[in-house]
Design a protein that fits this description.
The complex is a heterodimer of chains A (377) and B (318). With 377 residues, chain A is α/β, with parallel strands linked by helices. Chain A has helices spanning 3-19, 21-41, 60-71, 84-93, 106-111, 127-155, 179-210, 212-217, 223-252, 261-286, 289-306, 319-325, 329-343, 351-371, and strands at residues 49-55, 75-81, 98-102, 119-122. Chain B has two domains: 2-225, Rossmann fold (3-Layer(aba) Sandwich); 230-296, Alpha-Beta Plaits, CATH 3.30.70. In chain B, helix 3 (97-107) crosses helix 4 and helix 4 packs antiparallel against helix 5. The chains are: A alpha/beta (377), B alpha/beta (318).
């Protein structure tokens, strides 16, 4: 192994990256944009859901109930209408996610102590949102009802006993249940997959396509020197992207970094080597930039996006898909990321993820070194 | 041991791609400091041979020694001792001139105390002094070829392989290129060059004609011309040419007839005897005959003669 030759290849690769605007965009601009997009765009929190109200009673009591909806962060009462058609139209147009109808005899029946029902019309096109809405609505109405009961008891001179059993919830790791805290760390895996697999998949294919490979392999440079010389610049740039994305996550999105930054860097380095090796291997096999980039998209980017647990919980996937996730390095990396950021687990407790990740890294790196030969055809 | 004086020794070299035999039982010995030309039409096996000698393709059978190293077993030792210029320009178009030079100096591990001297030398040789910062892709063809040669010889290799180095280059640049090749040969460098320009072959010390993977002639250009013609050559100016060539194909004394420019070249057994017979034969067919005389064959004549003889032989076999 000659460092002179390795360095010559690496320098050449750096010059080519700096002169190629597409590579530069992917390395410099895309990572922060992905973090911002996912940090803001993919918001699984439901807040301020638009609600239309049709209050047929218009009494003090019905206003009390509606005020409770207004006071909640989850609802935003957009408009009070006076008829079903307006309500239906609002749901049809998507102006409202829910229509709340208070019956005309609401206060009367309350006074009589009888049961009374409030109608909630929920837009069920997005089942997740609908479920959450129904849950929140029930909670608000339940609260209102039990207050009425307590008041009634108090007025009738009874000893007041609040509901005998209640759940006191406390959320750990992501206390405010902010989805950005859940998603943003995982974006690192996505960024690494693009930089690693996608850019590395072009390296060897580009030399074949442009005809420069023939001259390159006629020199004494070894296959390993070519591989390391080509991948080292991407490794350095990829690690810089890790740091940039982590800083955006921590300082912009206020994602807590509870574990050590060093563990973050080490696990990122492992994952980056794995995807770079994978991309390099694809590049050797595909020999054309177009084919290589498509394969890289298919085997690195899409799994990192859909199956790594970055957006969708692996435990909720069908069993066969869950098995498939076990052969994805991205799965282990995402898991490590979430544990480092949110749980602050020390490296020693991450072995269940770090060991498989290390195995993939070594296997893929070996595969890549074996794949490339200095031969034509 | 003849191998000590020889830079390249090729023994029974064969390369097959599936059923296709690209190089068939090739034997060669090239001396140190020789400019050796490898001639043949496209697809004859020139590039395949050169690629095997550079360790880029593995021979199917046979062996080849380059600068004393076996191309099959020690390709890396071979590569340290050769400079190679592929047929298609294959430096990096998106690098500057100087960046390409530095890259190849690094790949050939040119020692740092010699680096600036070698870079300087390459720039002067390629006549690119002052153009160091141009992007390589913007250079004209002739400049690119000289740069490619400069990059291939930065490490002063004892053997240089040039695969059609002057294709697509203007005549003046071609001349300059050959001057460079001869300068290097004078310094003891062995040069193996393929070409399909027959006039360029005259610049070589020795040459081999290759056709369909087989060597059909070998020697100095003058020897090849003298020995490889089966008979003597006549030039005949006649009108109309097309009809003349057709009727002469079947004339009894003519071995072969081909159009060269605005005249015919005829291969005959004995020129003196054939001239009157051909004249009579043509005028009997109503073809007007101008000048007709014995000429010295060019390499092209030799080549056409050798390849048509081989074609005819194969047709008989089939």
């Amino acid at each position: 192994m000659s460092y002179t030759r390795l360095l010559a290849v690496a320098k050449k690769e750096v010059i080519q990256i700096l002169r190629d605007s597409r590579s530069l965009i992917i390395i410099v601009i895309m990572p922060p944009i992905l973090v911002l997009l996912f940090g803001y765009g993919v918001n699984l929190d439901l807040k301020g859901l638009p609600v239309y109200v049709y209050d047929r009673d218009g009494s003090q009591q019905s206003q009390d109930l509606l005020k409770r909806f207004q006071a909640s962060d989850y609802f935003h009462i957009v408009r009070v209408v006076n008829g079903y058609p307006a309500l239906t139209r609002a749901l049809d147009d998507g102006h409202a996610k829910m229509g709340l109808v208070v019956p005309w005899d609401f206060s009367e029946r309350l006074r009589a102590g009888g049961p009374v029902q409030v109608q909630a019309l929920v837009d069920g096109t997005d089942d997740n949102t609908a479920n959450v809405l129904i849950g929140y609505t029930q909670a608000v109405v339940q609260g209102y009802s039990s207050d009425i009961q307590l008041n009634w008891l108090r007025e009738h001179g009874q000893a007041v006993q609040p509901a005998p059993v209640s759940v006191e919830t406390r959320t750990w790791y992501n206390e405010d249940l902010e989805s950005s805290a859940f998603i943003v760390p995982g974006v690192l895996a996505l960024v690494m997959s693009v930089i690693g697999a996608f850019l590395a998949s072009l390296t060897i294919a580009r030399e074949w396509e442009r005809g420069t490979m023939e001259q390159l392999i006629s020199t004494p440079v070894s296959a390993l020197e070519i591989m390391l010389g080509k991948l080292t610049p991407y490794f350095v740039l990829g690690m810089a992207d890790v740091v940039v994305c982590a800083l955006i996550a921590i300082y912009w999105f206020q994602v807590p970094l509870r574990g050590s930054f060093l563990t973050l860097l080490v696990s990122s380095a492992m994952f980056l080597v794995a995807v770079l090796s994978l991309g390099f291997f694809i590049s050797v096999v595909a020999k054309s930039q177009l084919a290589a980039s498509q394969i890289a998209l298919l085997v690195a980017f899409l799994p990192a996006f859909l199956l790594s647990g970055f957006l969708y919980a692996i435990e909720q996937m069908p069993i066969p898909l869950q098995w498939i996730t076990r052969i994805l390095p991205a799965r282990y990396y995402v898991s490590v990321l979430k544990k480092i950021f949110l749980k602050g687990m020390p490296a020693a407790l991450l072995y269940a993820d770090l060991i498989p990740l290390a195995v993939f890294t070594v296997v893929l790196a070996l595969l890549a070194t074996r794949a490339f030969h200095k031969r034509l055809a | 041991m003849p191998e000590h004086n020889n830079s390249v020794v090729v023994e029974k070299l064969v390369k097959r791609f599936g059923d296709f035999v690209a190089v068939d039982q090739l034997n060669l010995e090239i001396r140190k400091g020789e400019v050796f030309g490898f001639l043949g039409p496209n697809g004859a096996g020139k590039s395949t041979t050169i690629r095997m000698l550079c360790g880029l393709l593995t021979p199917t059978s046979g062996r080849a020694l380059v600068a004393g190293h076996d191309v099959g077993r020690e390709p890396e030792a071979v590569r340290q001792n050769i400079g190679y210029m592929s047929q298609k320009f294959s430096l990096y178009n998106d690098l500057k001139v100087i960046e390409n030079i530095r890259l190849f100096a690094g790949l050939y591990s040119v020692p740092s105390n010699m680096l600036s001297e070698r870079i300087e030398w390459a720039l002067r040789m390629a006549n690119l002094k002052g153009q160091e910062n141009l992007i390589t892709g913007t250079l004209p063809g002739g400049w690119k070829q000289r740069l490619a040669l400069g990059c291939a010889v930065l490490h002063k290799p004892p053997v240089i392989f040039l695969d059609e180095p002057t294709s697509g280059v203007d005549p003046i640049s071609r001349r300059q290129f050959w001057d460079l090749i001869h300068q290097m040969a004078e310094e003891g460098v062995t040069i193996f060059v393929t070409t399909h320009y027959m006039e360029e072959a005259e610049y070589c010390n020795r040459l081999a004609l290759i056709f369909r993977g087989k060597m059909v002639a070998l020697g100095a250009p003058s020897e090849v011309k003298r020995n490889s013609m089966k008979g003597e050559l006549l030039l005949a100016e006649c009108e109309p040419l097309g009809k003349a060539v057709e009727v002469l194909q079947s004339a009894p004394d003519v071995i072969d007839a081909a159009v060269f420019g605005n005249a015919l070249h005829l291969v005959v057994r004995d020129a003196a005897a054939a001239v009157p017979q051909v004249e009579k034969y043509l005028s009997d067919q109503g073809i007007s005959v101008g000048r007709i005389e014995k000429i010295r064959p060019s390499l092209e004549d030799v080549f056409v003669s050798l390849t048509t003889a081989r074609d005819a032989g194969e047709e008989r076999k089939a």
